[in-house]
Amino acid sequence: MATVMVFSSPAMTAILSRIVLKEKFSLIKILSILLSLAGIVLVAGAYDASVWNLNPLGIVFGLLSGLLFAVYNLEGKHASDTKIDSWTALLYSFAFATVFLLFFNLGNDLFITGKPAFADMLWLGNSSAGWGILFFLGVAPTLGGFGLYTLSIRYLSPTSANLIATLEPAFTAIWAYFFLSELLNPIQLAGGGLVLLGVILLRFGER
User: CB neighbours of 57 closer than 8 A, spacing ≥ 6?
Assistant: First the structure.
């Protein structure tokens, strides 16, 4: 369910791009957005009514994630248009995010969980394997993924870049099959196909 909420960002990006950047939308681009959203719903299993039994705060945070990622897209495009280097923009974005998360987790410990401040920050202890995996996750998929994504905004519209990024759940399912032996059911396979179809339509629609 969280995946579906986060990947509501293509629709939010499209709306903000139309308002802020005056981006034009063809019927093919609108269809691409709808296909991608429908595919993500199927891949994430959000067609099952039971997964909607969330608390209101969870829904708010999920939708805010999609909205803020949409804002990130527009800011990335603005940075590109003003000739700011993509990696420099990423550095400042991550720096501000680090400061925000520092105070957010501090507030969470003090006012919500009641734990001592930053009690869980060093929970890996002396596990060298754990710290190694954490370092890899920070450098490769996080820094590398966001860096290449920010770079792509230099050449694509925010909506197009975000739509292509919706392939992530489908690719995650594929990797999960090879590394974790997780099997996709026919509905999830159909959802991945819809996401891929949406991206293919977008490519042809922008020729």
Answer: none
Q: What is the pLDDT of residues 128-143, one digit of tens each?
A: 999 999 999 999 988 8
List the structure tokens of 90.
């990423």
Q: How many domains does the chain have?
A: 1
pLDDT digits (tens, 9 = 90+) for 55-87: 667 777 878 888 888 888 888 888 888 888 888
**Cβ proximity of 42 and 194 under 8 Å:** yes
From residue 186, how far is each of 45, 172, 183, 191, 195 by CA, in Å?
11, 16, 10, 9, 14
> In angstroms, rounded to a whole number, what is the distance separating the alpha carbons of residues 32 and 201?
6
* Structural domain boundaries, residue 14: 2-205
User: pTM for the complete prediction?
Assistant: 0.73
